[in-house]
């Protein structure tokens, strides 16, 4: 939306719907948006890449999404739990395979397969059809599962990231979170296209070390560091497209050297990975 220049940083209440024309924290309680629909909730944008949008105005620090075992934080709408309901350790729930929504129980027509028994293990037998709980589900998983188990089912964390469990080392009591993450597609890096390689698999423990040193999930930077390089493929220009968008883009000074809009430079929020 557009506002008159005279209202920008005028010290009054925000004139933009997300208050981005002022430099103060809004007194509006965005964590209540799930219960009080309002245009100021619906039109709010996350202020910075390090935030996860709950879809209704509320936001979470993005790194909480990968630390379900130790951080008790969630969207009031449960949007951050979609498709990964079983991995919220302090309150495991059951994922509806059709919609991804979280429930305190399952459905009677649930398909009895590998994912079913893995979910029984992760939720301590939450579903009424579960005949096992925790590591007691391993005999059933050995019957139904391959040696590696894709779960959650699909690229939940990023379009190019999938999560896997190793069946032969699985221990739901010790570590219920995925064993490793795998890059499955290609992305643009600084000056080259990143392609998958054997080095692109990341153990959860290694990922957590990077998460604690970053302001959001560092999948992009880790991929660019470990991937095969395709110098002739689609890529971000070394000069950040400045020859096309004159003085409209900024090259972050540290790896992974992202390109960001000049409109967000020195706005009080970190957009470059290392600030």
Q: Topology, please?
A:
Blueprint: H1 39-42, E1 51-53, E2 59-61, E3 94-95, E4 102-103, H2 114-122, H3 138-144, E5 148-150, E6 161-166, E7 180-183, E8 187-188, E9 193-195, E10 202-203, H4 204-211, H5 219-226, E11 228-230, E12 249-251, E13 259-261
Summarize the amount of helix as a percent range: 10-25%
- On the 0-100 scale, what is the average pLDDT? 82
Strand order of the largest sheet: 5-6-7-10
Element string (H = helix, E = strand): HEEEEHHEEEEEEHHEEE
Structural class: alpha+beta
In whole angstroms, the N-to-C terminal distance is 27 Å
Strand content: 5-15%
Unreliable stretches (pLDDT < 50, length at least 5) are none
Number of strands: 13
In this structure, how is the largest beta sheet organized? 4 strands, antiparallel
How many helical stretches? 5
Roughly how many Å is the radius of gyration? 22 Å
Please tell me what the overall shape is.
Answer: flat
Describe the structure.
This protein has 275 residues and is α+β, with helices and mostly antiparallel strands. Among the domains are: 1-81, no CATH class; 83-166, no CATH class. It is 13% helix and 14% strand. The strands form five sheets. Strands 5-6-7-10 form a four-stranded antiparallel β-sheet. It is flat, with a radius of gyration of 22 Å.
């Amino acid at each position: 939306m557009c506002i008159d220049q005279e209202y920008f940083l005028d010290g009054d209440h925000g004139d933009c719907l997300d208050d981005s024309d002022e430099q103060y924290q809004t007194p509006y309680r965005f964590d209540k948006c799930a219960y009080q629909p309002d245009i100021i909730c619906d039109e709010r944008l996350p202020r910075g890449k390090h935030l996860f949008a709950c879809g209704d105005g509320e936001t979470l620090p993005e790194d909480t999404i990968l630390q379900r075992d130790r951080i008790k934080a969630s969207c009031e709408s449960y949007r951050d739990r979609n498709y990964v309901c079983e991995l919220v350790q302090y309150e495991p729930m059951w994922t509806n395979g059709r919609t991804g929504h979280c429930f305190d129980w399952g459905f009677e027509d649930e398909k009895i397969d590998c994912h079913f028994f893995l979910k029984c293990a992760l939720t301590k037998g939450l579903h009424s059809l579960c005949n096992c709980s925790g590591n007691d589900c391993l005999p059933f998983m050995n019957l139904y599962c391959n040696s590696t188990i894709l779960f959650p089912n699909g690229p939940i964390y990023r379009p190019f990231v999938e999560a896997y469990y190793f069946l032969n080392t699985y221990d739901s009591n010790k570590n219920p979170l995925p064993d490793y993450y795998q890059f499955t597609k290609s992305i643009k890096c600084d000056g080259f296209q990143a392609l998958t390689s054997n080095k692109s698999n990341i153990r959860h423990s290694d990922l957590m070390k990077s998460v604690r040193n970053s302001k959001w999930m560092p999948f992009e930077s880790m991929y660019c560091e470990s991937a095969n390089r395709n110098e002739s493929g689609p890529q971000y220009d070394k000069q950040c497209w400045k020859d096309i968008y004159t003085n409209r883009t900024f090259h972050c000074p540290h790896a992974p050297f992202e390109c960001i809009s000049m409109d967000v430079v020195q706005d009080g929020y970190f957009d470059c990975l290392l600030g």
